[in-house]
Structures are given as structure tokens and as C-alpha cells.
Amino acid sequence: xxxxxxxxxxxxxxxxxxxxxxxxxxxxxxxxxxxxxxxxxxxxxxxxxxxxxxxxxxxxxxxxxxxxxxxxxxxxxxxxxxxxxxxxxxxxxxxxxxxxxxxxxxxxxxxxxxxxxxxxxxxxxxxxxxxxxxxxxxxxxxxxxxxxxxxxxxxxx
Length: 157
Fold this sequence. Notes:
By secondary structure, this protein is mainly alpha-helical. The chain has two domains: 84 residues; 62 residues, no CATH class. The protein has nine helices and two strands; from the N terminus they run ααααααβαβαα.
């Protein structure tokens, strides 16, 4: 695992998280995402996963159906809006758990760099990390057998 200095880490993750910065704007993200029958979202699920079969047309339609319900898209974006607030980031940096925890990570995630795992023991000393090299942001859809296997092993312990 590469060690990143604070400045490099922040710069690299900031570039990866520009979509979340866009989500901070009022109304525009809702309009852009829902435009042309959620074309942006349909394209994202069809083109961005590493595994072509991660999301079929029916899966994508389910996401569109759910997010097109009144208030649902705004609520989904509000998750990002709240997490980007300075008090939310401070809270995240102060969280500590001794609970046994499993982190399943797609090594090729374009949004969340694997370097984010560095220092995890400081916040979750009993965390186990299962990295999956052939998966990205949608690790549960791209490598379901490996994710299920990791979950079953973790839950049996």
C-alpha cells in the first residue's frame, strides 16, 4: 500500500470526488441527472463498471424507478451534501469503533482511492479489509461471488 502525504492524498481524492462537489449545487444536479429520462445515470451504470454485466437493463431501470419517485433524487443527493459539510467531515474523522468490521473494497474504484484505507486501524482496530482487484465502485455487483464468500466467512467468525 502506497503511503500518501496529506497534501497528495487530499489532492488525489478531491479529483476523484469532483462529482460530489457538483452535487453540492442546489437544483442543478437534480436537473442534470433526471434529464432525458435519467440518461446520465443510465450511462454511468452501463459504462463505468469494470464488469460489463454488473448492471443489466432491468437493474438500471430499477434505480431509475426508485430515484424518479417524488423527493427520492433530492434525498440521495442530500446524502452527499451532508457528508461534504465541514461538521460532517469532522464527525467522520472523530468516529471510532471497536466492533468487528469487514471492509470490502474494489481496488479499481474511480471515486474512492484505495489509499483511503490507510490509517483505518486508528478508527476501527478490529476491521478486516478484503480487497478485490477486479472490481471498482460497485464491488458487490462486479464480484458478487467473492463479496458473498467474504461476507459468509466474516459472519461465521
